[in-house]
Amino acid sequence: MAVNIEESWKKVLAQEFETPYFKELINFVKEEYQKNRCFPKGNEIFAAFEYCKFEDVKVVIIGQDPYHGVGQANGLCFSVNNGIAMPPSLLNIFKEIESDVGTPFPSNGNLERWAKQGVLLLNATLTVRAHEAGSHQKKGWEQFTDAVIKAISTNKKDVVFLLWGGFAKKKGAKIDTTKHCVLTSGHPSPLSANRGYWFGNKHFSKTNEYLSETNQSTIIW
Predict the structure, then answer these.
(1) Which of 86, 90, 128, 174 could form a disulfide with 150 if both were Cys (CB 3.0 to 4.6 A apart)?
(2) Stated pTM of the model
(3) Taking Cα atoms as reference points, which of 84, 61, 53, 45 lies closest to residue 168?
(4) Using one digit for the tens of pLDDT, what is the confidence trace for 185-214?
């Protein structure tokens, strides 16, 4: 079965696409998109992989599922399309970046610019029904994204994994911590951030320090 995903990822995930669960997942997604309004757009479901080739991955950020409001999701976790108001979690990410590395607030919340620098912005679940958070969870996406994380962990070294919140930390079980850098903190959502679990984590400067130490180019946040 052909999956519309960037070529470098096809090679490392080829076996996954042939598994029974993945075929069931794709059938479920096709049916959902035909019957209901779903996000992101069909051609953006695998956008995280399109913008960040396998060989270019230096940093992995793990989200939960796409934004479910109209026009928000663009296939990159935490990111929103140009012209869309920034959700609270994204605002808190930019606040931390500003205090950590001094980068001023951007004019939009589109994180394509990070993805093009080697940041894989991976949601655990890649699709969602409009206005129904979590509606496509436990249909197979989590198994697929576990396989993505494991493929990166196994086939690469010196990747920085940013795990924010309990959900992302659980996904971290697939990471070989002896050859990668794993940074954890609370989630940037207001509930967590306002309790002191997010601000001050300095993940953005720590990421660049590690990339420098391992002779990789740093990220312009």
Answers:
(1) 174
(2) 0.96
(3) 61
(4) 999 999 898 888 999 999 999 999 999 999
